Automatic annotation (TrEMBL):
A Pfam family matched in the record: Amidohydro_2
Protein name: Putative TIM-barrel fold metal-dependent hydrolase
The organism of origin for this protein: Rhizobium lusitanum
Top-rank lineage group of the source organism: Bacteria
A molecular function (GO) term: hydrolase activity
Length: 292
């Protein structure tokens, strides 16, 4: 058996955007909206900044953690702290009107997240908004304010809904490498369909490899990663999922994951495109960043 890819500290020559991170603060200052499905860590903005600086990350995309539900106070406060260094992905239900979304966008929230990821007992994860809310209620408003929909779901579930998702005419970002099942193999129709959507420019995919490698190792994910990069590097976004909640085993560090990406993607132009230029396009960071 081949040795597992070693993950070392990277040395980067350009800016880097981590497109999927979370912050958790003191619940007395920022109360949870719902009973958490896991033990939330204490990982405030200061910890995120320290982690990013240590890893060589210049910009981040904050994704609303599920315990906070629709209460965006913490993500809005963190966006103020980080300023031009950050953008956000929030959560809203069907009661949120165009004016509310426009206000959020002014504060740096670039999209909303919708979840079809069931808990082990079959229930919905607390604090999430289902994909149906996007399809039946929020799609027109998101389109009007030019925000995107982020989908966290098993790939099979997303594909079942794809025709309706496509009709929404809203940019789609898929969490965690699209949620494919690596045990099904590279040639499985579901993964091949994901590659087809990517080639067509119909979806953006976050390369959060740690969420697909659990229990099987990073080298097992390498062929899938390579296939995604080959399919359409212009629709890929690098991501870590810091601070790695609900992670089985010892979590990686952001620096290690960035080094792994550099080991797998050696072309300097491809790296710059995925690590910086694509986030500039998708999340609305300053266009000048893409010229680095």
């Amino acid at each position: 058996m081949a040795a597992e890819t070693r993950i070392n500290q990277p040395v980067l020559e350009h800016g880097v955007c981590d497109c999927h991170v979370h912050v958790f603060d003191d619940p007395r200052a920022f109360p949870f909206e719902t009973t958490p499905a896991y033990a939330p860590p204490f990982s405030p903005a200061s910890a995120l900044i320290t982690n990013a600086d240590q890893a060589g990350v210049s910009h981040v995309v904050l994704v609303q953690p599920t315990p906070y539900g629709r209460n965006l106070d913490l993500i809005r406060a963190t966006l103020k702290v980080l300023g031009s260094r950050a953008r956000g992905v929030g959560v809203a239900d069907a009661s949120c009107a165009v004016e509310g979304l426009a206000a959020l966008k002014e504060e740096g929230v670039s999209g909303l997240r919708f979840v079809e990821n069931l808990m082990p007992d079959g229930s919905r994860m607390p604090g999430t908004v289902p994909l149906d809310t996007f399809l039946q209620k929020l799609a027109p408003a998101l389109a009007e304010v030019r925000m995107h929909a982020e989908v966290w779901a098993p790939l099979s579930v997303m594909l079942e809904q794809w025709r309706a998702v496509e009709k929404a005419k809203v940019p789609i970002v898929l969490d965690h490498m699209g949620g494919f099942d690596p045990q099904l193999g590279l040639g499985h129709p579901h993964f091949q369909r994901l590659l087809g959507l990517l080639r067509d420019g119909a979806v953006w995919v976050k390369l959060a490899v740690c969420r697909r490698a659990a229990g099987i190792g990073y080298d097992a994910i390498r062929p899938f990663h390579d296939a995604l990069v080959e399919a359409n590097s212009e629709r890929l976004l690098w991501a870590t999922d810091f601070p790695f909640v609900r992670f089985a085993g010892t979590p990686p560090t952001s620096a290690q994951l960035l080094a792994l990406f550099e080991a797998w993607v050696t072309d300097s132009e491809l790296k710059k495109r995925i690590l910086l230029r694509n986030p500039v396009e998708r999340y609305g960071f300053e266009a000048s960043l893409a010229q680095r």
